[in-house]
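Kindly inspect this chain:
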Amino acid sequence: MTRTCEDCGETFGTLTRLRLHDCPGPADIDAEQTRKLVAEGKSGLKRGDVVSALPNRPLLPEVAGQLEEDEEVLTVLPLMSGSPEDETTQRLPLQIVTGGYVLEHFPDEGWVVVRTVCGADKTDEEVFEDLMEQVQDWQETVTDLALDYAAGGTDIGERLRREVNRGP
């Protein structure tokens, strides 16, 4: 059973680790971080890129929602993932004026781009539809990997690295 810090959203395997962690407090996202995130997105993030503008921890949905305060951020969908006790977002579809990204939080790396949508020659609605398709594709991939792992699959880590363009 995982434990989650109510202030920062970080998860731990044991209650002792939760109690002993050095909590930085709630992870608000300020306007500067949002501008940096939009700039990273406009520069053309690729699958496998780490998004440096976001804190290196899962986000509370209301904190992720702060991204929409920027006029160039069109959609943020803080999806719940993990165990039911975990109230943080570890998967984040994000649509900006130039396209869209599906971001996944990996504890050792941070927020990684796992799917992309190019916005060239598309309306905002078309980009949103494509983004939702990419969210569904990523969820199907994660589900397949989890089922294979539960069935005793041995190449799960390698397959996950290939999915996010991280090589063997």
About this structure: The helical segments are 15-20, 31-42, 61-65, 124-150, 156-163. DSSP finds five helices and eight strands in the chain. The beta strands are 3-4, 11-12, 50-51, 73-76, 79-80, 89-96, 99-106, 110-118.
